Amino acid sequence: MASSSRPKKPVHNVHNGVGQLRIIGGEWRSRKLSFPDVVGLRPTPDRVRETLFNWLAPYIAGAKVLDPFAGSGALFLEALSRGAALGQALDASNVAVSSLKEHLGTLRCTTGQVQTADALRYLETQPASQFDVVFLDPPFNQNLLPTVCALLEERQWLAPDSWIYTESETAPSTLGLPASWRLHREQKSGRVYYALWQRSAA
Questions:
Q1: What is the tally of structural domains in the chain?
Q2: Closest to 138 (Cα-Cα) out of 188, 83, 70
Q3: 13-31 CB burial, b ≥16 within 10 A, e <16
Q4: Is 185 exposed, middle or buried (0-12, 13-18, 19+ CB in 10 A)?
Q5: Residue 32: is it exposed, middle or buried by C-beta count within 10 angstroms (0-12/13-18/19+)?
Q6: What is the extent of the structural domain holding 87?
Q7: N or C: which end of the chain has fewer CB within 10 A?
């Protein structure tokens, strides 16, 4: 999850400046990992993550995944646990990135890469590599989703039939995302909208 001002999600087992997240399925199923209690940094709730990965079940194994606003790393780690072939995670917080790197070491995972970076600057300036699944949970109230989605398209970061997951404070229909993206599923939990989109190569 991205770390910024946003509607608060339930905090799971936060104590002494540290929270815990649980990997739900796959190779590391039921593993509990800590994450720093950075303001605004909250993992996607277990129930929502389980629903999302049920939606993605036919597509996650062997996929290349990108998480530009990784935060706690809940979605990123869940994807790697469920068989994603390669993962790239970014976050602007050095603390969040250090924690996520520690998790990859603990899990002996060599297929995930994490670095401190501003997502928009990274997507705009780095050589593009095409990803099959992208998780987008940017800080709320900054109108970042339309910009990051446009960059993903314009800079050719997306595979022809890729899947894109978004979290937003407004309904998916209001986001103004690329015309080639088709809304596949959506869900609302509290004040947060969760949606899965499929990109059409055409």
A1: 1
A2: 70
A3: eeeeeebebbbbbbebeeb
A4: middle
A5: exposed
A6: 18-199
A7: C
pLDDT for 111 beyond 60: yes
- The residue among 147, 143, 131, 15 whose CA lies nearest residue 76 is 131
Helix (H, G, I), strand (E, B) or coil at 133: strand
pLDDT digits (tens, 9 = 90+) for 149-184: 999 999 999 999 999 999 999 998 888 899 999 999
Tell me what percent of the residues of the chain surpass a pLDDT of 70.
Answer: 87
CB atoms within 10 A of CB 137: 26
**DSSP 3-state assignment of 192?**
strand
**pLDDT at residue 49 tops 60:** yes
Q: Does residue 62 fall inside a structural domain? A: yes
162: in domain: yes
The CATH number assigned to the domain holding 54 equals 3.40.50.150
Query: pLDDT of 77-88, one tens digit each?
Result: 999 999 999 999
Residue 72, domain member (yes or no): yes
